């Protein structure tokens, strides 16, 4: 493969999954992620993998449950309404502690919504989505290159922690083309002695179940899950920050919004406004401590999202409500421009009295 | 030295089950386990158990297994079988599981010709949740959610799943059997064995529908239940082989 290839974000996820050792994909078409299912349909047979178009998102995620339980590196992908359908299976996968990668290329909602980019599945992705106390690890790329890198990371983390990992993108990232380098993506293989492979030489069966009729046993399962989540919050938090050291205003944005916010920050800096940008890369676990540190010099925070302000809650909690958190967002599949965000920045500075 | 003529199948663990008195899941478990033993596939078989009365079957079979969400067993089995095509994968499902919430999954697994075996236990009622109406509940049958009897005008007629699935090309063996008496149990075991052999030969989807009793939720003694099955279920759900690729070949 050439040093860098020009690729759509959706396709980059597919190729990175193949590099990560994913040989099983179960999915169902939906815009704006269909290039990914199409890529897997073409690519997996070339590497002796299995591509299967399921009859529904519900079936697809349960095929993932079966394949993950059987020890495979397996992926599914969808967009917002389809991911809602997958929530049943994701809860079971989290309960069964099965590793898999779920891609959500978000579009505007609620309901059928539209097919333009959105980020309004933040709550669903980071707070559970299905029933019960569980978390997916949620990674949020902001470039085609990162879609590749975080896909490989997602498979590694899934296996390491026996946990579903959601790659949360959006229609803009999925559809945009950028050069991507597939070299040096570290793949970490993990043994799976717990998988259902047929007993073979084992004396005892491997069983993957999620029913605990004894309340004490179920509480023990929940305690163990929470212990794992605490470990994740300690060890697997990822973020990026720019010009936060002296920032009087810290922008917080992830995914495609962070690209817009970056441009707005550059415009503001050029005008002498001390603005920084904090970008969570893991949305769960959320980089709470890092954000608190990043706002040290800041008088206020501005959160920018393609939603009605879902990440605002995590931002406010992370900084312990110590500063005002402003919000600017668009919904419906509308994209804000850097000028829009710049305007918000200027307004905040003017309200609190100058640069 | 005495010769042992009858013993617990190796594929069935020596544990007490939670099933109600007179329930026939125990018999059907045993038939499946005997078939697995006779085919010598215990070490390569992976079971998928459903939501419903047999949700704990993975605690009774001595094989690797996964527990599926309500109705999703054929999708879970598909995922397993695609990863391990050399293994034998079967689902064990009740009527609510397979013919209501999981209808899409079983229809499409059959249509794909998924190389799995499905044991479908039809007792015309939801057992585990306390005796509510199932898709297989007979017209005028009283259940917790059809207290005046299943009304045709409101709830439609029972679904004959075997006949329905037999229309699909990917389904290679579809049979309906019953375990209401010893003669039928023998036939049931033969059908279950055939359904596993169809998978082992890599031919496609195989399903055995097993008519069984639910004395607790039918409000009958075990003996009355067997009579009720014979008199009411057999006319609605005729026994027989609905699809057999071997016969088609001949």
Automatic annotation (TrEMBL), chain A:
Keywords, comma-separated and alphabetical: Oxidoreductase
Molecular function in Gene Ontology: oxidoreductase activity
UniProt KW Oxidoreductase keyword: yes
Superkingdom of this protein's organism: Bacteria
Record's keyword annotation contains Ribonucleoprotein: no
Domain named Pyruvate:ferredoxin oxidoreductase core: residues: 247-341
Enzyme class, spelled out: oxidoreductase
Enzyme Commission numbers on file: 1.2.-.-
Family matches, as Pfam families: PFOR_II, POR_N
All copies of domain Pyruvate flavodoxin/ferredoxin oxidoreductase pyrimidine binding, residue ranges: 16-185
Protein name according to UniProt: 2-oxoglutarate oxidoreductase subunit KorA
Record organism: Sporomusa sphaeroides DSM 2875
From TrEMBL, chain B:
Any one Gene Ontology molecular-function term assigned to this protein's record: oxidoreductase activity
UniProt EC number: 1.2.-.-
Pfam families hit by this protein: TPP_enzyme_C
InterPro entries attached to this UniProt entry: 2-oxoacid:Fd_oxidoreductase (IPR051457), THDP-binding (IPR029061), TPP_enzyme_TPP-bd (IPR011766)
SUPFAM superfamilies in alphabetical order: Thiamin diphosphate-binding fold (THDP-binding) (SSF52518)
UniProt entry tagged with the keyword Oxidoreductase: yes
Keyword tags: Oxidoreductase
Thiamine pyrophosphate enzyme TPP-binding domain ranges (all copies): 52-210
PANTHER family, sorted: 2-OXOGLUTARATE OXIDOREDUCTASE SUBUNIT KORB-RELATED, SUBUNIT OF PYRUVATE:FLAVODOXIN OXIDOREDUCTASE
Protein name: 2-oxoglutarate oxidoreductase subunit KorB
Organism of provenance: Sporomusa sphaeroides DSM 2875
Lineage of producing organism: Bacteria, Bacillati, Bacillota, Negativicutes, Selenomonadales
């Amino acid at each position: 493969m050439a040093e860098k290839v020009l690729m759509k974000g959706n396709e980059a996820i597919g190729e990175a999954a193949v590099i990560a050792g994913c040989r099983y994909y179960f999915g169902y078409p939906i815009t704006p992620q269909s290039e990914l299912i199409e890529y897997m349909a073409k690519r997996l047979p070339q590497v002796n993998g299995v591509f299967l178009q399921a009859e529904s998102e519900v079936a697809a995620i349960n095929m993932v449950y079966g394949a993950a339980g059987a020890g495979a590196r397996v992926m599914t992908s969808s967009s917002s309404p389809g991911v809602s359908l997958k929530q049943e299976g994701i809860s079971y996968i989290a309960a069964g502690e099965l590793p898999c990668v779920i891609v959500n290329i978000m579009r505007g909602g609620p309901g059928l919504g539209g097919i333009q980019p959105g980020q309004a599945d933040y709550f669903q992705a980071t707070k559970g989505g299905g029933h019960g106390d569980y978390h997916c690890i949620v990674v949020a790329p902001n470039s085609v290159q990162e879609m590749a890198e975080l896909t490989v990371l997602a498979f590694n983390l899934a296996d390491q922690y026996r946990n579903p990992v959601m790659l949360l993108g959006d229609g803009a990232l999925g559809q945009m083309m950028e050069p991507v380098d597939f070299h040096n993506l570290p793949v970490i293989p993990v043994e799976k002695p717990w998988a259902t492979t047929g007993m073979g030489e084992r004396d005892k069966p491997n069983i993957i179940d999620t029913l605990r009729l004894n309340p004490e046993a179920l509480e023990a399962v929940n305690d163990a899950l929470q212990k794992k989540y605490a470990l994740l919050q300690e060890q697997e938090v990822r973020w990026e920050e720019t010009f936060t050291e002296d920032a009087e205003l810290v922008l917080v944005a992830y995914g495609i919004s962070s690209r817009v916010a970056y441009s707005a920050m550059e415009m503001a800096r050029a005008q002498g406004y001390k603005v920084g940008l904090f970008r969570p890369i893991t949305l769960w676990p959320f980089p709470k401590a890092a954000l608190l540190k990043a706002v040290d010099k800041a008088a206020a925070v501005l959160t920018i999202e393609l939603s009605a302000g879902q990440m605002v809650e995590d931002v406010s909690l992370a900084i312990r409500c110590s500063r005002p958190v402003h919000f600017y967002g668009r919904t419906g599949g509308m994209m804000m421009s850097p000028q829009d965000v710049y305007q918000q920045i200027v307004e905040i500075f003017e309200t609190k009295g100058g640069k | 030295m005495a010769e042992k003529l009858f013993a617990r199948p190796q594929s069935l663990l020596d544990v007490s089950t939670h099933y109600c008195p007179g329930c026939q899941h125990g018999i059907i478990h045993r038939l499946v386990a005997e078939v697995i033993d006779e085919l010598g596939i215990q070490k390569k078989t992976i079971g998928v158990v459903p939501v419903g009365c047999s949700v704990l079957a993975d605690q009774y079979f001595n094989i690797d297994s996964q527990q599926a969400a309500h109705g999703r067993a054929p999708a879970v089995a598909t995922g397993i079988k695609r990863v391990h095509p050399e293994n034998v994968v079967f689902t064990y499902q009740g009527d609510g599981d397979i013919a209501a919430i999981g209808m899409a999954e079983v229809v499409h697994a059959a249509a794909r010709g998924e190389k799995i075996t499905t044991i479908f236990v039809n007792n015309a009622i939801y057992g585990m949740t306390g005796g509510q109406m199932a898709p297989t509940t007979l017209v005028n049958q009283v259940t917790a959610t059809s207290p005046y009897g299943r009304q045709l005008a409101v709830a439609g007629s029972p679904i004959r799943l075997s006949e329905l699935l037999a229309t699909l090309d990917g389904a290679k063996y579809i049979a309906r059997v019953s375990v209401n008496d010893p003669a039928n149990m023998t036939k049931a075991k033969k059908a279950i064995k055939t359904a596993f052999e169809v998978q082992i030969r890599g031919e496609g989807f195989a399903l055995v529908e097993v008519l069984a009793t639910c004395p607790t939720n039918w409000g009958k003694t075990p003996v009355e239940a067997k009579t009720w099955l014979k008199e009411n279920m057999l006319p609605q759900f005729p026994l027989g082989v609905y699809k057999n690729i071997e016969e088609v070949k001949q």
